[in-house]
Each structure stands twice: as C-alpha cells, then as structure tokens.
Write a structure and sequence with these properties.
This protein is α/β, with parallel strands linked by helices and about 400 residues long. The chain contains 16 helices and twelve strands. It has two domains: about 120 residues, Aspartate Aminotransferase, domain 1; about 250 residues, Type I PLP-dependent aspartate aminotransferase-like (Major domain) (Aspartate Aminotransferase, domain 2, 3-Layer(aba) Sandwich). It starts with a helix and ends with a helix. Bound molecules: pyridoxal-5'-phosphate. The site of pyridoxal-5'-phosphate has 12 residues, from α5.
C-alpha cells in the first residue's frame, strides 16, 4: 500500500493524494521526525563510543542501568528481582522472548488485533498462535476471552506466554486502566497454580502516553504482587522513544518475585545474544545512557517529545471528533500513533479499493483499516473522516 500511495502521488500530485500509510512519527510538513535533542548528542559521541564492540553480549552496563530505571520509573526499587538485556530494537526483545520461553510446537497467546510481526516471529520460532479478542461488547479489554484462552493454554501446555501491547496499542491507540491491569495480574496469579505465566508487555509506545511519565507507569504497581511462578518482560524500543529507528536499540527488562526465573531467563538470553546477533550497536546504547543520565539532556528530550505528544493529541481529536459527527466507527482510541476503523473482515478489501479509487491510502490490519495519525498532518486529517464515511457507506 505504501508503494501504491507513492505511485499515486507521482501520477496525481502530492496535494491530490491522502497518504495515511506511514507508521513513523512525522512533522507537519511530512518529514520524518528526528529529535534535535537526540541527534545533537549522537553527533558529538566520540569514536570510542561508537566503534568498539559492546562491553558484553547482553549490552553495556550503563545502558542496562539507565534502561531499567527509565522503563520501571517509580517502581524500579519496588521489584525484588530485576533483569535487563539489550536487544536489536523492541523487535529483538519480542522475538527472543518467543524463542526462549516456549518450545517449538507450543502456543503463544496474542491479541486478535495487533502488530503483524508477532505472527511472523511466532512462525520463525515454529510456534502456534492463539488469539484473544482484544475488545468486549463495551469496547473494553476483553478479560473474559483473555481468561478463557489463557486457561485453555495453561491446561494444554502447563505454561502461558501472552503478549499485551499496552499502553498506546498498535494499531488502535487503546490503553488499559489500572483496574483492568489488576484483573490481568489476578488472573496470572490464579493460573500460576498450574504452571508459569509469562507476560510480555510490549511498551514500544509508552513514551507517547498523554498521561505523562509517572502515570503511564502506574499500572506496573500491580506486578509487585506477582506470584513467584510468574515473569513479566517489558519490551522497550529506542526506535520510538528516541525516534532512532535505524540504530536498532531496545531491550528486555524483566521482573519476577522468584530469582530463579530471572536467572534462567537471563541464561537462555545470553545464548540468544551470542548465537543470533552477537552484540548491540554501542553508539546507540551510549546515546540512550548519555541522555538519560544527564538531567539537562533528558529534560530537553522530554520537552521535545512532549510537543509531539500534544501534536498527536491534536491530530487524533480532529479525526475522532469528525468520525463521531458522521458516525464512522473506530476502535477505542486513547493515545498513541494510530487510529483504526472498525470493520467487518469481509468488507475491508472492498472498502480499501473504494478509498484507493478516491486517492486515499490507509493500511489494512486485522479487523479494520489503520489511519496512521503519526505520519499525517493536521491539514491532511481535516475532513478525512467525513470523506471516508461518504466513500464506504
Ligand atoms: C507494537 C510494536 N512493538 C514493537 C515494535 C518494535 O520496533 P523496533 O524493533 O524498531 O524497536 C514496533 C515497531 O513498529 C511496534 O509497532
């Protein structure tokens, strides 16, 4: 679809095409957002900050320390056992978790609407996929279906690995409440009588939450009461947090109330790091740790990122208010990069064709059509919901 949109722009002119495919943060004039507060620091790194191998296969000490602290925020010292390793982006964290928690042939539980790479990674590691319905009839997290699927998997394989992409879910922009998270932890603890429950919390977009740093991490307090059988792995991405997609830096931060779980998971990952990607780019790790450990640099980055959070809020309001006015159905967006139109699966292809004919290019996702507000200007989004409604009705 990205290529189709580009071809249309060449043929009909940029101003006559509405391209809402681009899944990366962009400025109002359509350029990829690159935070000055980040690139200035990168440009000033020394050769020895970039050229050598990392200190260790699991990452540089400073990076691991700063990542743990940034990810866990006010809860860093509330968790008894914490582990961390650097991975090639958030992708490396998700993929290594799939590989190291499950054996080939076992089943991973993922949302029915979600980042398409989860399925690809499962195939790569010879895993089966089960999906839970993300939303119930009230457009809230479907704890009932999550429970049903997790219980069935626990019975069948004596272990559950489940992915929850929250906050700022890709592609709906949904975020759960603290009490919904409490229900999930209660369920994990309940099921742990029959085996280990491992939760992969994909937090790739956490730093774009409109609730701010402390509030966006408030749900983590629920994990303090995790059963010792359980493990929570946070998949963190510098691609989004620093807008440095190409540096390929991210990591896993993992917590458990049983030290053995941390040690075993770390040992398995040490093999993965060495056996698959060797080590993570030193310059990218240095960039993150340098900014995070310096109050002035960190505040500058936070201020710059905040301006984009406000911009995303503005873009989302324009689209959502219009969608409400014209009765265009969307999934419950709260914050983040994407809004997704609700649609019966059989209608998606047909509606996409109709939209393409009118030079509107969004992306097909499971159970809907994704509008990437991260890559679309306010100007482009004004009037778009109404146009879409008219075309697909
Ligand atoms: C939901 C989600 N998780 C994780 C990632 C990982 O990104 P990266 O590997 O660039 O850090 C992405 C990237 O698009 C994503 O959308």
């Amino acid at each position: 679809m990205v290529k189709k949109a580009q071809d249309a722009k060449i043929k009909y002119g940029e101003e006559n095409v509405i391209d809402v495919t681009l899944g990366a943060l962009c400025t109002e004039d359509g350029r990829l957002t690159i935070f000055d507060s980040v690139s200035e620091v990168y440009k000033n790194l020394g050769n020895m900050d970039i050229a050598p191998y990392a200190e260790s296969f699991i990452g540089d000490r400073d990076f691991l320390k700063e990542m743990k602290s940034w990810v866990l925020g006010q809860y860093e010292y509330k968790f008894i056992n914490v582990g961390a390793l650097a991975t090639p982006g958030g992708s490396g964290s998700v993929s290594s978790t799939f590989k190291n928690i499950l054996d080939p042939g076992q089943t991973v539980l993922i949302p029915n609407i979600g980042w398409v790479s989860y399925k690809i990674m499962a195939i790569e590691h010879d895993l089966k996929v089960e999906t839970y319905e993300l939303f119930d009839e009230n457009d809230e997290f479907n704890i009932k279906d999550f429970k049903e699927k997790a219980t069935r998997i626990m019975k069948a394989q004596g272990k559950v690995l489940s992915v929850i992409n929250d906050p700022c879910h890709n592609p709906t922009g949904y975020s759960m409440s603290n009490s919904q998270w409490k229900d999930i932890v209660d369920l994990m603890n309940d099921l742990s009588k029959d085996g280990n429950f491992v939760l992969l919390n994909d937090i790739a977009y956490i730093d774009y939450s409109v609730r701010g740093y402390n509030e966006s991490r408030k749900y983590m307090e629920n994990f303090i009461d995790l059963s010792p059988k359980n493990l929570v792995i946070f998949s963190f991405s510098c691609s989004k947090t620093l807008t440095e997609y190409g540096l390929r830096v991210g990591g896993s931060v993992f917590i458990s109330n049983e030290k053995k779980n941390i040690d075993e998971y770390m040992t398995a990952n040490e093999f993965t790091c060495r056996g698959i990607w060797s080590n993570i780019p030193k310059g990218g790790m240095k960039l993150f740790s340098k900014i995070q450990s310096d109050k002035i640099l960190k505040d500058k980055l936070i201020e710059e990122r905040d301006s984009y959070i406000k911009l995303l809020e503005k873009r989302s309001k324009i689209f959502l208010e219009e969608a409400r006015e014209v009765g265009l159905e969307v999934y419950p967006y709260k914050e983040g990069f994407f809004i997704t139109l609700k649609m019966e699966s059989e209608k998606i292809k047909e509606n996409l064709e109709k939209l393409n004919k009118e030079n509107i290019y969004p992306i097909e996702v499971a159970h809907g059509i994704r509008i990437a507000i991260c890559g679309s200007s306010v100007k482009k989004l004004k009037g778009l919901a109404k146009k879409i409604k008219n075309i697909i009705s």
